[in-house]
Amino acid sequence: MHTSSELIHDAAPPGAAPVGGPDVRSGWAWTLPRGPECARRARTLLADALAALAVPPDAIADARVMVSELATNAYQHAADHGPHELWLSADEGGARPPAEVRCAVFDAFGDATLPGYSWTSGDCGRGLSIVAELSRGRWGLLRTFSRLDTPVPGKAVWFAVAGAS
């Protein structure tokens, strides 16, 4: 449980609380709203944080699309299962930009599974295929606990992006 602004790395992204634990690398977390503004807030927070870490603009653009998909899913499918959190962790080397950055959106709907995707499945399910493609297959689901305030069981859907070109 971390709610302070103390630094874990040499520079923390704007407005982030430091987090860490046995199942994750050190990083930062933000609370996301449960309403329709969840995706917009996640995109803004992530873009600002990645810019502070000197991640290249094309990787930031891809990350904004992916986090928007995950935050939208959290809002649409787990709105009543809060808290919702945005997590960010960079590789441990401390380089700017880092070699890899991982981002996750947490919600407390831990029983949910990742749906299969089919081009014939209609409008639902395409967001995760976008995440799979833009992350080059570096994404998944982790059953875990919230990181801010009182730990709540749930799931984090994550993706990785290359930080350095």
Automatic annotation (TrEMBL):
<feature type="domain" description="Histidine kinase/HSP90-like ATPase">
    <location>
        <begin position="36"/>
        <end position="134"/>
    </location>
</feature>
<feature type="compositionally biased region" description="Low complexity">
    <location>
        <begin position="10"/>
        <end position="22"/>
    </location>
</feature>
<keyword id="KW-0723">Serine/threonine-protein kinase</keyword>
<dbReference type="InterPro" id="IPR036890">
    <property type="entry name" value="HATPase_C_sf"/>
</dbReference>
<dbReference type="Pfam" id="PF13581">
    <property type="entry name" value="HATPase_c_2"/>
</dbReference>
<keyword id="KW-0418">Kinase</keyword>
<keyword id="KW-0808">Transferase</keyword>
<dbReference type="GO" id="GO:0004674">
    <property type="term" value="F:protein serine/threonine kinase activity"/>
</dbReference>
<dbReference type="InterPro" id="IPR050267">
    <property type="entry name" value="Anti-sigma-factor_SerPK"/>
</dbReference>
<feature type="region of interest" description="Disordered">
    <location>
        <begin position="1"/>
        <end position="22"/>
    </location>
</feature>
<dbReference type="InterPro" id="IPR003594">
    <property type="entry name" value="HATPase_dom"/>
</dbReference>
<protein>
    <recommendedName>
        <fullName>Histidine kinase/HSP90-like ATPase domain-containing protein</fullName>
    </recommendedName>
</protein>
